[in-house]
Design goal:
The chain has 7 helices and 2 strands; from the N terminus they run H-E-E-H-H-H-H-H-H. By secondary structure, it is mainly α.
Length: about 230
């Protein structure tokens, strides 16, 4: 198990080391950003200790979730080989992206003239694009993916929805990167990007419902699964 996630573990350890290098010299009364609002501005901060430990703790829990996924998912055994190939890649992406955001927050706390807004948008965009490319390969699961009552009840609906969701995530990721590059264009740029992104999240959900109705009308059987 550890060998399969060694890349994610290495990324996590490097993140912790760099975080200590950047964060320990910070003054005791420093305020470390932990949240950005819709305008891309910091609207919540944490103390030095909390800021240094909180996100690495979340990343560690995320990594442990992936590592113990086979034990908590009853569907894992049904498509074990597919899960073995896709889950470590998912873990690598999530740990890397959250690690970068963590280090970005420390740099922002250290450099008063740098708010990190544009870079944050770009990082989010890259994450969405990478995850979107993996979506069509993701097996059915109660824990990862577009989990609606309709995708979880039909393998066909799951497969089609995640193909559409993959395109939506990649498109949304491109918009996020553009938002980071062009900034708040004409005062509405980033809000507009958020609206578009919201539609791209909602569309796959609606699509899954429509496809499920098609399956029922075509005589397909509803595949009910026990809750994991």
């Amino acid at each position: 198990m550890i060998k399969r996630y060694k890349v994610a573990i290495i990324i996590f350890l490097i993140t912790v080391i760099l975080g200590l290098v950047i964060g320990l010299p910070l003054p005791k009364d420093v305020e470390i950003p932990i949240h950005w609002n819709i305008e891309g501005k910091v609207d919540n901060t944490a103390s030095k200790t909390q800021g240094l430990l909180m996100l690495p703790g979340i990343i560690l829990l995320l990594l442990l979730f992936f590592m113990f996924f086979p034990r908590i998912s009853t569907r894992y055994r049904k498509q074990e080989e597919r899960f073995k190939s896709i889950l470590p890649v998912f873990a690598n992406i999530m740990v890397l992206m959250f690690g970068c955001m963590y280090l970005l927050s420390l740099v922002v706390a250290r450099e008063a003239s740098f708010d990190g807004t544009e870079l944050l948008w770009v990082l989010l965009g890259i994450m969405f694009i990478l995850l979107g490319n993996l979506f069509p390969k993701l097996p059915s699961s109660f824990f990862i993916g577009i989990r609606t009552p309709w995708t979880l009840s039909s393998e066909e609906v799951w497969r089609k929805t995640h193909r559409v969701g993959g395109y939506a995530f990649v498109t949304g990721g491109i918009f996020f990167i553009l938002a980071g590059v062009v900034g708040n264009l004409f005062g509405i740029g980033r809000i507009l990007f958020y609206v578009i992104m919201g539609l791209m999240v909602i569309y796959p959900i609606l699509y899954s419902y429509i496809e499920y109705q098609k399956v029922l009308k075509s005589g397909g059987e509803e595949k009910e699964e026990s809750v994991e």
